[in-house]
Amino acid sequence: MHGLAGTRAAVRPRPVDSPAPVVRIMTAMEPRRVLVLGPAPPPIGGDTVSTRYLLRSRYWAENGFALDHVDTSGGGAVRLTHDPLSARDLVRGLRILARFLRRLPAADVVLFWGNSRFLCTLGVPVIHACRLLRRPVVVKPFGSFLPERLRGMPAPWRAVARGALRRADALLPETEDLAVELAGLLEIDRARLTVYPNVVPDDAFAADFDPGRFGGRCVFVGQVKREKGIFDILAAIGGRTDLSCDVWGQLAPRDAKEFLRAVERLPNAAYRGETEPGEAAATIAGYDALLLPTYHEGEGNPAVLLEAFAAGVPVVASRWKNLPVLVGEEERGLLVPPRDPAAIAAALDRYRDEPGLYRAVALAARAWAERFSERVVIGGLLVGLVCELIGRPTN
User: Which of 11, 78, 259, 381 could serve as 252's disulfide partner, Cβ 3.0–4.6 Å?
Assistant: First the structure.
């Protein structure tokens, strides 16, 4: 692999100082119990890491809450959006449901974090059980595929799934567009949906940093599969001695052999293995640019982009789903069409040739990321919502 000299200054993390309020409640009494139903690593992905951040946030204990967790992760290999359900999935689902039902009576409120498949299957008895025991339930769909999942279901089961989702006390889609779409599909008031973006841990934010100049060292962090644009990245840097890319993440079995063979042929690309949960921002901070030319149909509000912003690392991302809203046009990164390796290379050339653009993008991204900090999203938005739900009767 070609050794490209890094130009980024060292990053020192600090807790972010955000103006957003953090809800405070009386803590002298018995803690209120929050039951979290959601996936934790492994595998490492946006949904599992998001749940991990939720479970480890200090703002629960500071506000008088105790968390219990029922893990819904299947572990093992990366799953694809259209993987069929198996008998093993059914057995695992019944075991998860049994664990959940045993713990539900002791809970004051339920946080249900799930992908579209999980919400439309096991989510039905979960939500109805919460309503039966009069426990408020907050549902967060991962990604943006829930509307497509609902539309593609047989009409009778779609009616069942829609009916269950409508009974949730709150729905937390990742983006405004998804909130509007879900409100229409479920035929509910848009006010019942609260946009809940992915979270950046407070300690991921760089204290003092200097973006420096673009030195050509790029990184991809995420599940390594075709839909994330990984082969487009390799094509973009192929034959270049001034660009390199390290790839971090769990390999999707379907694409693993092809990817590893492609990396072996490129002296300026390397597969570095998996990052530890919660270490993505620190990993990204050591590079000059993050690449995410995704066309994954379930893409929502990718946490890896927010973590790059927090580290002050400019990004090259695709014009896909909500990514243009996150990145902006030459605001916090550069956008390229999906499936366009030449456009990826051209965007990186701009970072090299326009140091003023590179620096401006890095500084803007770092400042903008504060709205996604753990303090704002969990300590402010989510804790406040839970306090509101516990303080009022359920139907």
Answer: 78
The pLDDT tens digits for 256-275 are 999 999 999 999 999 999 98
**Cα three-residue angle 265-270-272, rounded to 5 degrees:** 145
Beta strand ranges found along the chain (DSSP E): 13-14, 32-38, 65-71, 109-114, 137-141, 170-171, 205-206, 217-221, 244-248, 269-273, 289-292, 315-318, 333-336
User: What is d(CA 107, CA 197) in angstroms, rounded to the nearest whole number?
Assistant: 25
DSSP state of 200: B
What values do phi and psi take at 107, rounded to 5? Answer: -90, 150
Torsion of CA 108, 112, 113, 114, to 10 degrees: 170
CA distance linking residue 103 with residue 370, whole number of Å = 35
Helix, strand, or coil here: 34? strand
Sign for the CA dihedral angle at 64, 70, 75, 78 comes to negative
Q: Hunting for tokens 């704002």 — which residue is that?
A: 376
Q: Cα-flanking dihedrals φ and ψ of residue 259, to 5°? A: -65, -50
Rounded Cα gap, residues 385 and 147, in angstroms: 24
3-state secondary structure (DSSP) of residue 181: helix
Q: Is 48 exposed, middle or buried (0-12, 13-18, 19+ CB in 10 A)?
A: buried
The pTM of this model reads 0.83
pLDDT of residue 15: 36
| pLDDT above 90 as % of the chain | 78
